[in-house]
Write a structure and sequence with these properties.
The protein is of the alpha/beta class. 57% of the residues lie in helices and 9% in strands. It is flat and about 70 Å long. Bound molecules: guanosine-5'-diphosphate (GDP) and magnesium ion. Magnesium ion (MG) binds next to helix 5.
């Protein structure tokens, strides 16, 4: 059971209680403790957290006009937000950023994500590869830099990090944001400290961020403190927070270590990076909708899929734009995280899987249509065409008919809303395949 699920169960239990007395509160905080501890949140943090809730619920006089359940839920929310640390608003300005961390924490991926983040906000970006300990580091960053469409500097055989930084800074001097990816080790040790000091002295970064994998749980706090004592961090980026389940342990431990979380990585794709917002994170855990990020993500995906405004009008939908929108939707993120952002975190897995499978299937069916068929849905009624498309896409005729019927339903639905401009605008953002 992930943290969010545990917390939501505890709250559901509280809602189910007919009277909120000492016993109900005790049971509720026990559930909270179980959920938090099994997500590797430090036990002392958990105990003081639940004690504050108990004290407030039992000793304080509850304010008028609010149900005890709402009052306690809100308190859980606020206490969790505090426990998960402060939010971060990155300054969109020229700067140098150094990324450090142990092997496999996600430094190189994060370097490219950050590059894209600043580039998307109008700043030119250059990436320097300063990982001299792993042979493939150069190619990895070079490829990712291409995908993010940012400049790259590295020298394959060069082992001298000072020289790399000096040449990189010179080569990329016209770039507003320069990000340096460094080499990791299995742990912070004297050798790594020495190498990072060399890079640091030459690079003179404005920001030094430690990249940590959320899977390590509360150890993240120790790691952050250790790197901070060696090279004085300005922030910590926590990666692999895909979905909303895990990560409470790592985030709370980093927050408690007095270093601050700046960004979180939520997937392997280059757009899966967000400035850290503890309210948003806790909101997702508790199953509160996060529509703002969803809309942003959808807009971004629509932009990168090159969907034109007239195509976004779904009352003129063709299979072609339907397909484009389906693909854009897949770029928004996995279904689970989309539904999570909509506040529907506990959707049964088989429903989720059906959704994912259907999206994939529709993609392959539409790609098996001819150009004419994609642009004129009336064509795809003849049996011979349906049979051909099913064969070409490795699906069944039933699948093809199902797609057509979903497509038609959506079109009808869209026409219904055609006169309501605002609603239409919003629906066209959300519609594909859902
Ligand atoms: N699911 C997921 N995978 C990630 C994330 N960040 C990095 N990874 C993956 O973690 C692995 C190691 O990442 P890499 O950037 O090479 O780590 P480095 O050794 O610190 O440079 C790669 O397979 C990445 O795709 C993330 O936020 N979510
Ligand atoms: Mg790397």
């Amino acid at each position: 059971m992930d943290l969010g699920e545990g917390l939501r169960k505890a709250i559901a239990r509280l809602s189910g209680a007919t009277i909120i007395d000492a016993k109900a509160i005790k049971e509720f905080t026990k559930e909270l403790q179980k959920a938090l501890i099994s997500s590797d949140v430090d036990i002392n943090l958990v105990l003081s957290f639940t004690k504050r809730i108990e004290d407030a619920a039992l000793k304080e006089k509850l304010p008028q006009g609010i149900t005890p359940k709402d009052y306690i839920t809100n308190m859980v929310y606020e206490e969790l937000v505090k426990m998960m640390g402060e939010s971060y608003a990155p300054e969109i300005a020229p700067k140098r950023i150094l990324l450090v961390g142990i092997y496999g924490s996600g430094k190189t991926t994060t370097a490219a994500k950050l590059a894209k983040f600043y580039q998307d906000r109008g700043l030119s970006v250059g990436l320097i590869c300063c990982d001299v300990s792993r042979p493939a580091a150069f190619e990895q960053l070079e490829t990712l830099a291409k995908q993010s469409n940012v400049s790259f500097f590295g020298r394959k055989e060069e082992k001298d990090v000072k020289k790399l930084v000096r040449e990189g800074l010179n080569e990329l001097k016209s770039r507003k944001v320069i990000i340096c990816d460094s080499g990791g080790r299995n742990a912070m040790d004297a050798e790594l400290a020495k190498e990072l000091k060399l890079i640091n002295d030459e690079f003179r970064p404005d920001e030094k961020m430690l990249v940590i994998n959320a899977d390590i749980g509360q150890v993240a706090g120790k790691q952050a403190a250790e790197f901070d004592s060696r090279i004085k961090l300005t922030g910590v980026i926590v990666t692999k927070l895909d979905g909303s389940g895990k990560g409470g342990g790592a985030l709370s431990a980093v927050a408690a270590s007095k270093t601050r979380i700046t960004f979180i990585g939520t997937g392997e794709k280059l757009n899966a990076l967000e400035p850290y917002d503890s309210k948003k994170f806790v909101g997702r855990l508790l199953g509160m909708p996060d529509l703002e990020s969803l809309v942003l993500k959808v807009q971004e995906a629509v932009k990168s899929a090159n969907i034109k405004e007239e195509e976004a009008d779904i009352s003129n939908l063709s299979f072609d734009t339907f397909y484009k929108q389906l693909k854009a939707m897949q770029n928004v993120g996995p279904m689970k995280s989309i539904l999570g952002m909509m506040g529907m975190a506990d959707v049964p897995k088989d429903v989720l899987d059906t959704g994912e499978t259907k999206l994939k299937k529709y993609g392959s069916i539409i790609s098996s249509m001819t150009k004419e068929e994609r642009n004129s849905d009336r064509l795809v009624k003849e049996h011979s065409r349906i049979a051909r498309i099913a064969k070409g896409s490795g699906t069944t005729e039933k699948d093809v008919r199902e797609l057509i019927s979903d497509f038609n339903r959506m079109k009808k639905f869209a026409t219904m809303f055609k006169n309501n401009r605002d609603l239409k605008k919003n629906m066209s953002k959300f519609m594909p395949g859902m």
